[in-house]
Amino acid sequence: LQAFRKFLPMFDRVLVERLAAETMTKGGIMIPEKSQAKVLQAAVVAVGPGSTNKDGKVTPVCVKVGDKVLLPEYGGTKVVLDDKDYFLFRDGDILGKYVE
């Protein structure tokens, strides 16, 4: 959590950590790394304050820290903090939020 004190996304950007890829099938068969599907699920680790609309009012980001979200297959900016990979997406690029 220390990395996020050093990094705050700007405007409507959201910093996420992709969840780990499935390495085993439900039947217990190991999946080779190059056959693993790209993980589209991620956990939100930091959010910006939101974007400013034409009236000057701030529109807050739709997700909060700790949310699990669905990412688009492509896009995002890779950010390395403390030797870990994170990705920066605009709030509008996040496809959905998983609810408990």
What would you note in describing this structure?
The protein is mainly β. 4% of the residues lie in helices and 35% in strands. The protein has 1 helix and 8 strands. It has one helix at residues 3-6; strands at residues 13-18, 41-47, 51-52, 58-59, 68-70, 77-81, 84-90, 96-98. The strands form 2 sheets. Strands 6-7-1-2-5-8 form a 6-stranded antiparallel beta sheet, with no helix packed on it. A two-stranded antiparallel ribbon has the order 3-4. Strand 3 and strand 4 (58-59) form a beta hairpin. It is elongated, with a radius of gyration of 15 Å. The model has no long low-confidence stretch (mean pLDDT 84).
Structural class: mainly beta
Give the proportion of residues in helices. under 10%
Largest sheet: 6 strands, antiparallel
Silhouette: elongated
- The overall pLDDT average reads 84
Please provide the count of β strands: 8
Please work out how many helical segments DSSP would assign.
1
Computed CA radius of gyration, to the nearest angstrom? 15 Å
Organism: Cyprinus carpio (Common carp)
Keywords: Chaperone
Family: Belongs to the GroES chaperonin family.
GO molecular function: ATP binding; metal ion binding; protein folding chaperone; protein-folding chaperone binding; unfolded protein binding
Short key terms for the protein model shown above:
mainly beta, 100 residues, single chain, 10 kDa heat shock protein, mitochondrial, 4% helix, two-stranded antiparallel ribbon, 6-stranded antiparallel β-sheet, elongated, 1 helix, protein-folding chaperone binding
